[in-house]
Amino acid sequence: MGGYDGITAGYLIRGERPALVETGAARSAGEVVRALAGLGVGPADLATIVVTHIHLDHAGGVGDLAAAFPNAEVVVHPAGARHLVDPSRLLASAARVFGPVLDELFGPLLPTDAGRVRALGDGDAVDLGGGRRLESFDSPGHARHHVGLLDSLTGDLYTGDAAGVWTPETEDLRPATPPPEFDLGTAIASLEKMRERRPTRLLFSHFGPVSDVGTTLDRSVEELRLWVELVREARADGLDVDHAVSRVRERTLERYAVRALPEVEAKLELLSSTEADVHGIWRYLDQQAALEND
């Protein structure tokens, strides 16, 4: 995405009913098709395409991949299903955020026929064949249309963005708190849902597998609380949101090893910018203040 490798992961689950978890952006769809072909998965073989949520770096390739794999059912949170059928509102919203770089970064999300889209509610599952299931649970906080997915055979848990952004080059973990739907309480509750399921690994969409589950989930909570507290302090000091962004950057300068690797940090900022994440927290704190004043 955006000229970078190793930025968004798609996962193939092999078995009687092969499934792809996450499509990446539309501009990556051709690469996904080629990679699946290299793994022996042809146009008639893929049974299911699952996305954790409908942000364009996760689901932007759905329309392209649905066309490339005509037998595949497309599975998504109930709140996201209509946007895959008619992506016009989703694309308009993304255009307001990304402006002229939208097409360069993501490409167009093509519509998918409604008959091929299935809503995956809390407690529902995807049949992987042979009694194996991909079990779904609501994991909002990053976005309300977000699900976590647990493989009943392996114990792998697909985190989407709910556990933050993992940088494998440096083993940094940063929160993903963009507007408009970030909520601290529901984000932490989602992490507790992950912990309760006792997964063997966390499979981050950004980027890759992590085996130290307990420590990583602890870090996810810690990072969320830290960033919210830093923005809260900036507001209390009378700073505006742009100065809050600067403060978060300054206060976390020594916290993340990725800061010493400019190219990797540039990739991370493209994917999950400090500015966007602080804006998401700022909006959340605005909402909390309004509730307190009611």
TrEMBL record:
Positions of the Metallo-beta-lactamase domain = 7-206
Which organism is this entry from?
Longivirga aurantiaca
Q: Name one Pfam family in it.
A: Lactamase_B
Q: What is this protein called?
A: MBL fold metallo-hydrolase
Q: What InterPro entries does the record point to?
A: Metallo-B-lactamas (IPR001279), NDM-1-like (IPR050855), RibonucZ/Hydroxyglut_hydro (IPR036866), ST1585_MBL-fold (IPR037482)
Alphabetical list of Gene3D superfamilies matching this protein:
Ribonuclease Z/Hydroxyacylglutathione hydrolase-like
